[in-house]
Amino acid sequence: MADVDTHVPGAFCWPELATTDQKGAVAFYKTLFGWDLNEQPIGGGETYSMFQMRDRPIGAAYTMRPEERQQGVPPHWGSYVAVKNADDSAKRAQELGGKIVAPAFDVMDSGRMAVIQDPTGAVFCVWQAAKHAGARIIGEPGALCWTELATRDTKAAEKFYTGLFGWTPKHSPPGAGMEYTEFSVGGTPSVGMMPMPEEVPAFVPAHWTPYFMVADVDASAAKAASLGGKLTVPPMDIPNTGRFSMISDPQGAMFAIFAPKK
């Protein structure tokens, strides 16, 4: 995959960073991934930092709202799923046991979105595109290539997401050493789910993590560390698949990097 102009309904289409230090975070990711920047004024002296490659948007960053910080929400990467109709998807999510964090609303002339919490606690957004389709590059170095859910109830999460988006699940075989579910969207595997590791503190809710593709995981992980990031999972192999590392940026937002097996 590479350049995309539209996203099939049910596909993750936009990674968005909510951070406490927009300038610092933008500098970190620009240096790490070589992203270009397109600052969009959003009023009140604030900007929406649009990350780009080849003049095509691939993600964004914004400063967290004071109310989010007061609620104890940490810096994080938010994940958007493309849908035909944000209102209908929010209603369906509620019927399936999800909670509406923010009912559907228009984002100027870019599109319409809703914020939803799944029954296991993970928050995500649905996106009904108008002028803004989402990421215009997928699955190449520097771009989003995978989105993964860590949850304490994989069965409930699978029931919810397959019911909401029609994803096709594929479970790791018995004796695989690790329980993992891969979901396909329109026949393309692009979503993963795993049980929350036991060592993760109970106060950490279920969450989605974006994976960005890189050419060399070890080199990118070392670069992230030199820029102030923390390697929460050092570079390691995924048998027959590739190599990855999980990283916490200098403000604490989690993301992963991945290089497919050559």
TrEMBL record:
Any one GO molecular-function label of the UniProt entry: dioxygenase activity
InterPro entries per UniProt: Anthracycline_SecMetBiosynth (IPR052164), Glyas_Bleomycin-R_OHBP_Dase (IPR029068), Glyas_Fos-R_dOase_dom (IPR004360), VOC_core (IPR037523)
Sequence ranges assigned to domain VOC in this UniProt record: 11-129, 143-260
Cleavable signal peptide: none
Keyword rRNA processing annotated: no
Alphabetic keyword roster: Dioxygenase, Oxidoreductase
PANTHER family named in the record: GB|AAF24581.1, GLYOXALASE-RELATED
Protein's name in the database: Glyoxalase/bleomycin resistance protein/dioxygenase
Higher taxonomy: Bacteria, environmental samples
